[in-house]
Amino acid sequence: MKRIQLIERAGGVIVGAAVGDALGAPFEFGPAGAFSARFPSPDAGGEMCGGGGWDPGEATDDTQMAVLVGESLLERGGLDLPDIFTRFQRWAAAEPKDIGLQTEDVLTNGMPWDLAAAIHFQVNLRAAGNGSLMRASTSAVHFAAAGRGATMDAARRIAALTHGDRAAWEGTAIFHELVRVTLEDADPLAALPDLLRHHVHPDHSARYATVLAADWHPDRATEFNGAVWPCLGSAVWALRTTDGFEEALRAAIDLGGDTDTVAAVTGGLAGAYYGLDAIPARWTEQLHVPLPGFGERVLRLDDLLDLIARLTR
Ligand SMILES: [Mg+2]
């Protein structure tokens, strides 16, 4: 692995995730192979195409919620779970273009922050969507310096705000730890066996070991990739089986299904691995993140870079 400055890797996580989100959004719920059918040549340009209700470069709920988490961490001087929940609620009430069904229910059911997700899970019994994994870029960057235990703990607690199923917590915690390892210039794929054996809840480690194994392929997924396991597995597969940021994102979006989130998670991991410089400028130029519920604010690349600098300070 190349040595890259920490800020370059941290920037890669957050901008990479945002770029993946915006790039994948127009292909959401589409068939496999749709991206490369439309853009057969890898560097021909025009891929930030918009469509399906999205403007070219417009980031969706994945990035919007990640920004809300990041801003809470900065403004509250650390992890303030009720504050994050309140920001999520304010955002959800402003009717964002995209919001996960489960996330919407938890944020609008009127329950207090520390019960809403748990009660939703008790009633529905299914809460292992990828909706907490998709928004983890900012918290992963912020808590990396605090070490493995602290970053995985923070991941679980932020995930639990909207997802009552521990499977979602563990997937988000694995993502946090893979980012932390990469920011230390270590190979995240090499870290997986020990991570799965010793640091993932024993009730969930076997299922993650399956989807994160070197020989796993997204074709072997037993659920839609809107679920947390195949989503994380597909992102790690895309990182493992490609040789660059752009190639990893193309592979992720070409899987079809929940393309914005699979590409956002892939973009976070690949952005950490290859660094900010590896993200094509033609993809960041049009990138923008509207924040419904927070005035008319729309963050652009410079705003994200400023957020990243503050999150890593
Ligand atoms: Mg989305």
From TrEMBL:
Cofactor-binding details, from the entry: Binds 2 magnesium ions per subunit.
The species this protein was found in: Actinospica acidiphila
Residues at which Mg(2+) binds: T60, D61, D62, D258, D260, T261
Keyword Metal-binding: yes
Family note: Belongs to the ADP-ribosylglycohydrolase family.
Record-level Gene Ontology MF annotations: hydrolase activity; metal ion binding
Record bears the keyword Hydrolase: yes
SUPFAM superfamilies: ADP-ribosylglycohydrolase
Protein name: ADP-ribosylglycohydrolase family protein
Cofactor(s) needed by this chain: Mg(2+)
Keywords for the protein's UniProt record, in alphabetical order: Hydrolase, Magnesium, Metal-binding
